[in-house]
Write a structure and sequence with these properties.
D-amino Acid Aminotransferase, Chain A, domain 1, globular
């Protein structure tokens, strides 16, 4: 039975890994080179531990699994939470990658963000559709736009947010615009550059 408020720590990780949908995380190119003109989107990537969130069902209940990743981005642990506020369509197989932040880590109420929050950096599955063959970042953003209203009512065990993002200006320094800095509610790890149209690796420029 799934308790309404008690999380369940998965102990049989081998059996659990055999049940989850296959997913592939995106990788960054880290370089000192100038950002190519092919990259037209910039994201403020948070500092914090990375997780994969999987909306599915357990018996007759809608649940979400919080999967902890190690530095090699391998799943090393999982906890199941009830998800009574999640629409049933999410439980058909929606999987998100990102950073889990707690209020004590510097996650503030700026910009309307309160309590614990999960910053979505990528969508891996959307309502049973694998994002592996989705060509462009723009297509992924359209999928995220579709499910964000479904995620907004969820506040337990955390709320869901998109990272701060903006369109690239290649004539300006590769820095966060002041208007973004003024409302950013989480600690920054780095700026990641993406292409909205091309299927190329995400880019992180080292100064």
């Amino acid at each position: 039975m799934v308790s309404n408020n008690v999380p369940f720590v998965v102990t049989d990780m081998r059996g659990f890994m055999e049940k989850i949908p296959e997913f592939e995380l995106s990788y960054e190119t880290i370089s000192h080179k100038k950002v190519s003109d092919k990259y037209d989107l910039a994201l403020a990537i948070p500092y914090g531990k990375k997780y994969v969130i999987w909306f599915t069902y357990y018996r007759e209940h809608d649940v979400l699994y919080v999967m902890e990743l190690n530095r090699e981005r391998k799943v090393v642990g999982a906890t199941r939470f009830p998800a009574p506020k999640a629409p049933a369509s999410l439980a058909h197989g929606t999987m998100l990658y990102g950073t889990l932040l707690e209020k004590r880590q510097g996650f503030s109420a700026n910009g309307g963000m309160t309590g614990n929050g999960f910053i979505i950096e990528d969508i891996l599955w959307c309502q049973g559709i694998s994002m592996k063959r989705v060509v462009s970042q723009m297509d992924k953003l359209l999928f995220l736009e579709k499910i964000m209203p479904m995620l907004q009512p969820i506040t337990d065990p955390f709320a869901f947010y998109l990272p701060m993002m903006w369109c690239m200006d290649h004539d300006a320094p590769a820095a966060i615009p002041p208007a973004i800095t003024a409302v950013m509610a989480y600690p920054l790890h780095h700026i990641q550059f993406r292409s909205s149209q091309c299927q190329i690796r995400d880019f992180q420029r080292r100064s």
